[in-house]
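Sanity check. The docking grid for D-xylitol-5-phosphate depends on where the pocket ends up, so I'm generating a full predicted complex first rather than guessing from homology. Inputs follow.
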Amino acid sequence: MPIIAPSLLAADFLNLEQACRLVNESAAEWLHIDIMDGRFVPNISFGQPVLEAVQKVVTKTLDVHLMIEEPERYAEDFAKLGANYLTVHFEACRHLHRNVQQIKALGMKAGVALNPHTPVHLLEDILPDLDMVLVMSVNPGFGGQKFIPHSLEKIAALRRMINDNGLSTLIEVDGGVTTGNAAQLVAAGVDVLVAGSSVFRAADPMAAIDALKKA
Ligand code: DX5
Ligand code: ZN
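Predicted complex below; grid placement will be based on this.
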């Protein structure tokens, strides 16, 4: 069964506490936090002060996805705020190996995210150092976008790379995940399903999480 990581980006920002408590009481193991800087991606979401507030009520694993330039400037902040997984973008890191080592030295699990245009084979030399690879199945920056079908082939190729090398790196998929494509994603090799709109914009978010879990 996949790990479910509801994305707070799609929650009602007037009621973030309620959204966090819903995730606490749900079958979802993680909470996904999208940090955007308006530079790496065209949109700005929220930053440390919001995470500082929500982490006080969250009991689940905090999965922080940095869609920002120069993530090395903020890694320590996110470690102090209780991030369990910290994911940086391949396209934002000139010295990715250094970024990954920094995240681990701060006591967090290290993830690397790939934009839709970035081939999985570019991770060949860094894969053994990673705890997780996040495959973006939409262009990062906004919730509620349509799933890019080619992501399935990338996930399958990444699953082969991980298995062939005897690694235990997790594969996370993010963007346009719904109950309609979740089973296919899990069959292709996904471990963690991020879901924003399909959870928080559903009539019954709890039931949506249960349905994704059964994928
Ligand atoms: C997009 C973010 C996603 C977003 C997913 O840039 O990284 O985590 O919240 O939203 P949905 O599930 O609505 O596509
Ligand atoms: Zn995300």
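Relevant for the grid: Residues 151-164 form the longest helix (14 residues).
Also worth noting: The pocket of zinc ion (ligand 2) is lined by residues 7, 32, 34, 65, 174, 194 (CB under 6 Å).
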